[in-house]
C-alpha cells in the first residue's frame, strides 16, 4: 500500500534541532495507526545535517532523505518534497519545532472528517515571537489581502496538510519562485483550519533573517498580484492633478502681482517625481525579470540523492508500487512543472 500521509520537512543547517525534531515527530506518526513516510529535504546543508539524516535513516524505515545539490531556498525545498511525496495526504512542517508535530493528527482528523483538501495550521498565539516579527507578519498578511488575496488566512504559514489532488495541482503549476502560502488559497479547494500556539525555536538559529523576509515579500507581491504595476497609472494621474494645481496657483499669483520665488519647491517637486519614476521602473523591472526567468525555464533545484531510489527494492518502504523517478526540474513550465 502507498503511504496514507507523507510529511515533507525542508531542512537547512538544522544539526542542533534535528534530534529533538525526530524525537517528537516519530511517536506522533507511529501513533496515527496508518502507513506514512517522512520526506526530509536537505536543502544543501553545510553542517552535520546530512550525517544525522543518514544515521536516522538506518533506524527509521519510514524516513526518506532527498538531498538537493545546492541550497535552493525554503520554498524550492518544499516544492521538491511535494514533487516526490507519495501519500494520499501530504503535510509540510519546518524542523525548528515552532510548529508542533503533535497537531498533525488533529489536522488529519479534521481533513478527513470535513472532506477538506487543505487544512491550515493557524497561529492563534504568537506571544513567543518578538514584537518586530509579529508586526511585520501582520503587515505582510494585511498587504497581501489588500492587493487581492482575500482567501489568504491570517497567521497561516507553511504548516499545512493537503490532499493528493491539491498537491498534484500545485505540482502542475508552471510558476517560478512561487510562494506556496499564497498559491494554494488561489486554487479554491475546500479548506479548514486548526489553531495552535507557536513555540520558540527549539535549537539552532533562524533561517529567515531580515533580507530573506524582504525577498519573500517581494516574490509574494510580484508573483501574486498586478496591483503594483498600476502604481504608475495612479502616480501619473496624481502628478497631473498636482501640476494643474501648481499651474493655477502660478497664474493667479502672476495676476495678483505676487512674485513667485519657488526655486526650492521646484527642486523638491522635480526630485520627487524623478523618484516616483524610478520606483515605477523598478516595479516594472521586477515583473520583466520574472518573465525572463520563466522564459529561461531553469530548474529551481536539482536532486542529488533520494534514499528511496538508492535503497534496494526489498528494503523500500513501499514495495508494490514503483517509485516515481526523482524530478530535478520541478517548477519548470509545461509537463516538467
Automatic annotation (TrEMBL):
Gene3D superfamilies: Spore Coat Polysaccharide Biosynthesis Protein SpsA, Chain A. It holds the Pfam family Glycos_transf_2. Residues 320-337 have a biased composition (Low complexity). It is found in: Membrane. It comes from the Bacteria. Residues 6-166 form the Glycosyltransferase 2-like domain. It is a multi-pass membrane protein. Residues 315-337 are annotated as: Disordered. Keywords: Glycosyltransferase, Membrane, Transferase, Transmembrane, Transmembrane helix. The keyword RNA-binding does not apply. PANTHER family: PROPHAGE BACTOPRENOL GLUCOSYL TRANSFERASE HOMOLOG (PTHR48090:SF1), UNDECAPRENYL-PHOSPHATE 4-DEOXY-4-FORMAMIDO-L-ARABINOSE TRANSFERASE-RELATED (PTHR48090). Belongs to the glycosyltransferase 2 family. This is Glycosyltransferase family 2 protein. It comes from Luteipulveratus flavus.
Amino acid at each position: 500500500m502507498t503511504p496514507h500521509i507523507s510529511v515533507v520537512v525542508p531542512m537547512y543547517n538544522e544539526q542542533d534541532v534535528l534530534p529533538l525534531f525526530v524525537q517528537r515527530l516519530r511517536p506522533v506518526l507511529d501513533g496515527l495507526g496508518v502507513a506514512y513516510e517522512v520526506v526530509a529535504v536537505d536543502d544543501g546543508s553545510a553542517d552535520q545535517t546530512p550525517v544525522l539524516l543518514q544515521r536516522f535513516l538506518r533506524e527509521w524505515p519510514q524516513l526518506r532523505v532527498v538531498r538537493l545539490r545546492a541550497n535552493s531556498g525554503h520554498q524550492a525545498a518544499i516544492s521538491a518534497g511535494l514533487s516526490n511525496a507519495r501519500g494520499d495526504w501530504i503535510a509540510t512542517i519546518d524542523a525548528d519545532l515552532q510548529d508542533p508535530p503533535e497537531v498533525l493528527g488533529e489536522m488529519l482528523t479534521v481533513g478527513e472528517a470535513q472532506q477538506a483538501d487543505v487544512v491550515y495550521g493557524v497561529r492563534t498565539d504568537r506571544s513567543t515571537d518578538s514584537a518586530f516579527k509579529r508586526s511585520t507578519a501582520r503587515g505582510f498578511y494585511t498587504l497581501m489581502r489588500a492587493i487581492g488575496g482575500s482567501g489568504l488566512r491570517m497567521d497561516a504559514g507553511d504548516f499545512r496538510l493537503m490532499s493528493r489532488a491539491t498537491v498534484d495541482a500545485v505540482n502542475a503549476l508552471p510558476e517560478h519562485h512561487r510562494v506556496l502560502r499564497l498559491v494554494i488559497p488561489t486554487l479554491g479547494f475546500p479548506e479548514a483550519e486548526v489553531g495552535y500556539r507557536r513555540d520558540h525555536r527549539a535549537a539552532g538559529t533562524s533561517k529567515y533573517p531580515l533580507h530573506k523576509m524582504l525577498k519573500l515579500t517581494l516574490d509574494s507581491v510580484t508573483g501574486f498580484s498586478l496591483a503594483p504595476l498600476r502604481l504608475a497609472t495612479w502616480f501619473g494621474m496624481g502628478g497631473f492633478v498636482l501640476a494643474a494645481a501648481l499651474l493655477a496657483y502660478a497664474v493667479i499669483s502672476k495676476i495678483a502681482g505676487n512674485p513667485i520665488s519657488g526655486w526650492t519647491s521646484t527642486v523638491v517637486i522635480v526630485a520627487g517625481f524623478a523618484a516616483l519614476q524610478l520606483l515605477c521602473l523598478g516595479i516594472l523591472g521586477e515583473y520583466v525579470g520574472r518573465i525572463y526567468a520563466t522564459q529561461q525555464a531553469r530548474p529551481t533545484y536539482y536532486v542529488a540523492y533520494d534514499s528511496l531510489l538508492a535503497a534496494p527494492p526489498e528494503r523500500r518502504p513501499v514495495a508494490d508500487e514503483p517509485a516515481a523517478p526523482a524530478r530535478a526540474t520541478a517548477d519548470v513550465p509545461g509537463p516538467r512543472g
